[in-house]
Amino acid sequence: MPRFSIIVPSHGVAGRLGRALDSVLAQSFGDFELIPVCEAPGSLAADVAARHAERDSRVAPVHAPPAAGLAGARNAGTRAATGTYLLFLDGDDVLVPGALAALDARLDRTGPVDVLHCEHERAPWWEGEPANPAAPLLAKAPDGAFSPDRAPHLTGVGLPAWSAAWRRDFVTERGLAFPAGHFTDIGWGGLAMLDAERVAVLRSVVVRHLVRRQGSRLNLPGEHHAELLDQVELVLARAAERGLPAERSAPLFEQLFAAVLKTAARPRRLPSGRRAFFHRASTLYRRHRPAGYRPPRGSLGVQHRLLASGSYETFAALRDARRTVARAVAAVPRPRGLRTRLLYRMHLRRPLDPHLAVYCAYWGRGYACNPAAIHARARELAPHIRSVFLVEADRAHTVPDGVEYAVLGSRRSWEVLARATYLVNNANFADGVVKRPGSVHLQTQHGTPLKTMGVDQSTYPVVAAATGSFTKLLGRVDRWDYNLSANPHSTRVWERAFPGSYEHLEYGYPRNDVYLTAGADDVARIRAELGVPQGARAVLYAPTHRDHRTGFEPGLDLEAFCEAAGEDVVVLLRAHYFYDRGGRGGGGRVVDVTAHPSSEDVCLAADALVTDYSSIMFDYANLDRPIVVYADDWDVYREVRGVCFDLMDAPPGPVVRTPDELARVFRDGSYADAESAALRARFRERFCAFDDGRAAERVVRRVLLGEPPEALPPVIPLAERVPAPAATPVRS
């Protein structure tokens, strides 16, 4: 029997679940079982848990349906547990180093206890210092093991379930379970402490709780706040059955109604039913008020008396009088120029245009990437929606004929930004853009992540210095309603790197649709436009940006590579878009296609790809053509930039580290042999899950036309897809 059973619900936190599980497996004290509670097998969280179970036999995943909620997940984990003590850990929190050893040592000193309360740290995402809210409560508790009568302020309702160890035999003997619904910690903690006979505290931090940027889900507006009263009534009714003495019932009563009044005093939490909530709370207050109970002093005491009397109108008037009236004026954006600011503010007062969509790609670099693919599909499926593409002034000439555009920073651009119902971007709109109620922001992203992204970059100094304010970044994330994902890996990374309340759309990347819809004639036409000689093997060389370097360095002598790789080899050089200066050139067998407006066209023209760590490899893999990874500085890149997974363990093809090795794999054909194909097949299975040629259609129908998810085209299985053919047969 293990000392601890650690139960980790995972619904909605797949992107951070691995970190939570790793924090347990890294503990110096190893006598435990780890029970991740996931949705059905095959879900994102279940895949994370399964990988951990493969490498450590102490990990034993169980499954619970999302409909069962947090309570159902914890109860499922409890039923599967065999340890002496139960620990609960939310899937986006972590155990601090040494936590289990500290718990074990404390239990050795106290002997068996029903509940061991411990401290926890509430860590904000960025600004602010970590807090330890349990410390003041536990500081007043007796040393050693004690009866709850000796610490009546420890009622169990003010501490989360993951801030304690619970003796499993005590839980099963008393038939304890997490009550269904929201605010389940209040019901669980209150009921457990009513039954507990022997309690102790550990005055050190065990869990680091990562405070959600949007705050607790329980504090969001919704009808679920009525369930708070269900939990309050459950605990108070059980206390009445137990005949709880006044010295214990008064603190319990006061702490429960502190939570109730906190909700009643915040009207945004209750979009409707505020009066009914108040009157039901008033009934509970009068029914369960302990004999001789004296309300607290000050304004809180006034609220107690108004609740006791059922005076909702007076309570609401007091509440409204205390609320500040500072509104969105302070948050009005600051576009450059006083007249432009005033114009934008004026347009913000006008109603949204339900038939206006604004698109932008790469901070205005032109008509490109996922926004362009969605725009093109919307013109077919949603012709009633007027679409405006935003571009920088020096890129206006690249916009295709027939596409309406506006120059970024112009008065017209601010007008459409103020009035558009739909805003689509693969990067982010300017900080000054206001997220208006009723508007829909779609973040399409522009690549599958290998390198660290978003807030994950904060621990890499070189990258963090170039990124700028993470607080501003997260402010932009707060505008997103939808975030597009091309594969389950991306979904997990986006959830962690860009924490927000948006919805993931696992639809694939619209820009990649063309890899499944283009034909041989399209490939031939593009190659002719790029100047690729007939019969040549066109090798696309696409290195990524190095944060520790200034300026573009090819990293290879491309002419020498062509000579060494074979007389039929030509190279299409596509540098990172940071280095696109609008020109095009090259000499001999090297063609610089960095400035070509479409990376998709360039990929279609290429018979093989050579890259280092660029995300283009994930897109190119949809073509099922050979890929070679040129990893001459992988260790440096990984340390400076940070990566989401080890590419060397799961490459899309051969990995080479010198120019000679690179030339040899093309010269002897091993770049396209059976081993290379097997690596690519595994890579495609992992990273091409949703790119089936219909991503743009799914996005338009869901976001612009409002169709339900079940009405959208299902993803075509990978084995049934037919990629665009390569122009030159593979030589192996």
What this model shows, in words?
This protein is of the alpha/beta class. The protein contains 27 helices and 21 strands. The strands form three sheets. Strands 3-2-1-4-7-6-8-5 form an eight-stranded mixed beta sheet, with helices on both faces. A seven-stranded parallel beta sheet has the order 11-10-9-12-13-14-15, sandwiched between helices. Helix 1 packs parallel to helix 2, helix 8 (226-242) runs antiparallel to helix 9 (246-264) and helix 9 (246-264) packs antiparallel against helix 10 (274-288). The chain is globular.
Q: What is the gist of this entry?
A:
With 732 residues, the chain is an alpha/beta fold. Helices cover 38% and strands 14% of the residues. The chain is globular, with a radius of gyration of 30 Å.
Give the overall shape: globular
Q: Calculate the mean pLDDT score and round it.
A: 90
Main beta sheet, described?
8 strands, mixed
Structural class: alpha/beta
Strand order of the largest sheet: 3-2-1-4-7-6-8-5
Pick out the low-confidence regions: 324-332, 578-586
Proportion of residues in β-strands: 5-15%
Enumerate how many helices there are, as a single number.
Answer: 27
Number of strands: 21
Radius of gyration: 30 Å
**Can you give the helix content as a percent range?**
25-40%
End-to-end separation: 56 Å
